[in-house]
Amino acid sequence: MKWIAGRLAALILCLTMAFPAAAMRKAGDAIKPGFNLFSKEHDVQLGQQAAAQIGKQYHVVENRQLQDYVRQVGERLAAQKVAKDSGFPFTFKLVSDKSINAFALPGGPTFVHTGLIAAADNEAQLAGVLAHELSHVILRHGTNQASKANLLQLPAILAGAVTGSNLLAQLTSMGASGFLLKFSRTAETEADLLGARLMNDAGYNPVEMARFFEKLEAEGGSRAPQFLSDHPNPGNRVAAVQAEIRGLPQRQYGANVGDFAAMKSLVAKLPSPPAKPGAAPAAAAAPSAASRPSGGFKQFKGREVALSYPDNWQVFGESNAATVTIAPREGVVQTAGGGVNVGYGVIVSFHETQTRDLQQATDELVQVLRRRDPAMQIASDSRRSAQLEDSRGLVTMLASKSPYQGQYEQDMLLTVSRPVGLFYAIFIAPVTDFPSVQDTFNEMVRSIRFSN
Fold first, then answer.
1. Helix (H, G, I), strand (E, B), or coil: what is residue 177?
2. Within 166-311, where are the H helices?
3. What is the enclosing helix (H) or strand (E) of 175?
């Protein structure tokens, strides 16, 4: 055992001393996989075992046109020499998930979230993310990092894999499985550069890959896409890719395997995926930039009330019902119990009350809301009046826990006493987003008109 440890330590030392030479690489030069205790067969085995688990967590999109499109983009990249020479059997599946993400497992199983297609501007950007992910597989970054995570335990685990033991389960038990899809900045740089070669050879402009990643970085903050949590920005991506292009064979760009705009339209019309049997839905991510009010307005006309709302939001509920919700699709969040919460949008309704006193009726409504949501608090003791066209309203600021993971929300409650009961509208947004939608909410308040 001491001999093995000594040999491994010497190997690590050699790799460390060799790194400066790798740093002298010229644009266009080949990028080779690094130190790895796993065989390529191990990579394939890990990928297949992980893909089986992924199938239990995600809903595969049941639209053949979309699946064929994603597969064709992926296979165009996988057909290039550097990908073919890797020997890995790449596969591509589109899964229903609104987060902006894609990932390739060791050995080649690749999954694309519908949110990635919704966020990309063109096919080249989609191809750029896939080329980047394929590069992680080709360069074996996942098992490279797992190899360096715990060298002394791995030989026995790899030996056990030959006998049929679950390699992924063994890595999970030693805490090394997390390295398979979480990469260093050095690995990100390598995936960018090799991805640029894949795109170039396939006829896609590699700069679109860097532009898309920088677009995600610019979104930042609490809205930072899931992709960035596992793929840290190595910095200067556009400049690095442009420099790499100069070292590659010249190509004509403009490749397309299909109508990207039509694919985006199909993705936008997909129904929400059914919940997996026996599994609670994962905590929702913060709503994407596409959910922000557009600046344009539509008109909602109900039985008792009419108002304007952002033209990129939807009305959930019948116009003649007592309650409707106006929100972006991402604003309505499924709960673990199978119900829904509104995390971003507006609830419009009436509350039956025996009093015409606005302050008293509002207090009564707040108590009802707090019974439904014990975490709800009055954000301020001060209330303010709001003048509508022919009625006086009251605005009460509330706060509660948001259905979006790790967030709190701010709620603006507008109440107006009407002959049919207490009209109310709750304007809801995460605390971090509320200032940016305040003007939209105020415009909606000003637009309210009652029919009787």
1. helix
2. 167-173, 185-202, 207-219, 226-230, 237-245, 260-268
3. none
Asked if pLDDT for residue 278 goes beyond 70, the answer is no
- Ramachandran bin of 377, using left for φ above 0, alpha for ψ from -120 to 50, beta for the remaining angles: beta
Closest CA to 100 of 406, 330, 409, 316: 330
Residue with tokens 């939608």: 437
Give the strand pairing for 408-418 and 392-401: antiparallel
pLDDT tens-digit profile of 342-363?
899 999 988 888 888 999 999 9
User: What's the pLDDT band for 145 if we cut at 50, 70, 90?
Assistant: confident
Domain ranges of the chain: 2-268, 294-450
Residue located via tokens 């030392």: 13
pLDDT tens digits for 56-112?
788 999 999 999 999 999 999 999 999 999 999 999 999 998 888 899 999 999 999
Residue 217 pLDDT exceeds 90: no
First vs last Cα of the chain: how many Å apart? 86
pTM: 0.58
One-character DSSP codes across 326-383: EE-GGGEEE-TTS-EEESSEEEEEEE--S---HHHHHHHHHHHHHHH-TT-EES-S--
| Cα–Cα distance, 235 to 240 (Å, whole number) | 9
Other CB atoms closer than 10 Å to residue 262's CB: what's the count? 12
Q: How many other C-beta atoms can be found within 10 angstroms of the C-beta atom of residue 149?
A: 16
In this structure, which amino acid lies at residue 313? W
CA distances in angstroms from 417 to 41, 338, 394, 421, 450, listed in the order given: 71, 33, 9, 6, 11
* Number of other CB atoms surrounding residue 350 within 10 Å: 16
**Helix or strand or coil: residue 137?**
helix
CATH class of the domain whose range is 294-450? alpha beta
